[in-house]
User: Fold ATP-dependent dethiobiotin synthetase BioD from Chryseolinea serpens.
Amino acid sequence: MNYFVTGIDTDSGKTLVSALLCEALEADYWKPVQAGLPKDSDTVKSLLSNKKTVIHPEAYLLHTPASPHAAARIDGVNITLEHFTLPATDNRLVIEGAGGCLVPLNDRDFVIDLAARFRSEIILVADLYLGSINHTLLTCEALAARKLPVKGIIFNGESNPESERIILQHSGLRCLLRIAKENRIDPTTLSKYSDQLRSTLL
Assistant:
């Protein structure tokens, strides 16, 4: 089973979680749409210690740091779902979405439509800020409405037990991992959390 990493907002921590999954599973990494620099694939590569993960090139590499549909229009590019094909690999694949799940790719399709196209199990990343309960539960409703399989939630950032409790209660999802607010993210930090994550994915 491949995993599709999506978040409740742009800065939820999807790239960190994608790197954690790649390290825990020695899986390959692919970001179908990259809008703006630096590339998230470069960040993932810099954090990994294992030698098995392959970083696959983006299907669309856009120059403007904006929603994919807007960045594509600025770049004179037309994003279509039909253009996306999974990279050729015998390994498991971690796919990182762009922004939140309802970020538009074009006038019709959303980022989350990629998860459905690739038949991937979703891992939802939620950072805990004021308003994150609403954003997380709305995201869960959107995923449920599309009948998409969700492996669970990863909470990222400063802990808020009450927010976490109510989100898990109403979403019915399982918490896979809690990532504390770290002063530094490096391969050592990644290794610590990837060990924890590996056990919850089994």
Observations:
- Strands lie at 3-7, 28-30, 33-35, 55-56, 60-62, 93-100, 121-127, 150-156, 175-179.
